[in-house]
Each structure stands twice: as structure tokens, then as C-alpha cells.
Amino acid sequence: MPGPRLIGDYLAQLSAELPARIVDELADGLDETYRCYLGQGLDQDAAARAAVAEFGEPRVVAAAFTGASSGRRTARRLLAAGPVVGLCWAIALITARAWQWPVPLMAPVVLGVALITVIGLLAAAALGRQYRLVCRAAAAACAGTAILDMTVASTVLAIAPALMWPVAVAVALSAGRSGFAVRSFSRALLG
Questions:
Q1: Contact criterion met (CB below 8 Å) for 106 and 136
Q2: Are 142 and 74 in contact (CB under 8 A)?
Q3: Is the dihedral of CA 116, 117, 120, 122 positive or negative?
Q4: Could you tell me the pTM of the whole model?
């Protein structure tokens, strides 16, 4: 039966790029389309070719799912919030004269490396072309964002000599972003 084999090959190409749950949904739709063409009098081969042609090239279908994934949307939202939260932290730390605090020299280095890593993961999720990579990078970036925000906020609250309004604003923004990242983790991972 060459017709169903063509559909099987098509679904195998999609399976290489998309999760099984998405491919299963596409398989149902493709089967319905195939049966519709059979009902119109086409033979199995012609019906399979018509159904596959109607669905489009596998790489185009995968790209559409990648572009619409919740991982990509989450990464873009976190990237957009980053400069605002970062600016608030810069103002808070400058206002509080953080350079005078008793912080080990390696702490800012580790924080900087972690921040660059999270930004890289967010960029990979926002711009990536492979569905699984986008979802995994977005989930890792969500976890990293939450950990960074909680670490910075708790450290500043523990070390700062007095709570000033810029610190309170930065902590509140970090808490909000951290909450969003935690809530978005599983959706980002699943796409």
C-alpha cells in the first residue's frame, strides 16, 4: 500500500522534529484528509499525495509549531522584561552603594556568568529553529531566571544596611518575573 506508506514517511519526518503528542494530532488530521480524498474517488496513492500536499512540507509545518510554541513566547517575554528589571537593580544597587557591601569577589563573577548563560538560553529559545531545542532552552532559562532573581533579591535583602525604595521596587519586579518564570516552566518545556 504505497499511499499509507507515503503518509507514514511524512509523519516520520515530523516525528524527527516535533513531540509525539503534536505528531499524533497531525496524524489524526492527516488521516481525516486522506479519507476525505478517498471519499472523493481518488485511489490510495493519489489521496495520500493530495493529503500530504495539503498539509505542506514537514519542515514548514515544524517551523510553524516552533514559531508558535509557548517556549518561544515565554522566552521573548522574559527577554523583554530583562532590561527593565536589570535597570531597576542597577539603580537600587547604585543608590544603596553596593560596592561597599561585604561581598566576596567571586560572587559578582558567578552572578555575571549565570546571567550571561540565562540570556543565551533565552536567545536560543527566542530565535531557535528546532522545536525541542526551543522548548528545552526556554525551560532552562525559566529555571535560571527564577534562581537568579531569588538569589539576588534574598542576598540584597540580607546584606543591604537599610531597605530603600529602589531596592524594594527591584525586589518586587524580580519576584514578579520569578513567579512568571516558575509558572511558565512546564508550559515552556512542553511547548
A1: no
A2: yes
A3: negative
A4: 0.84
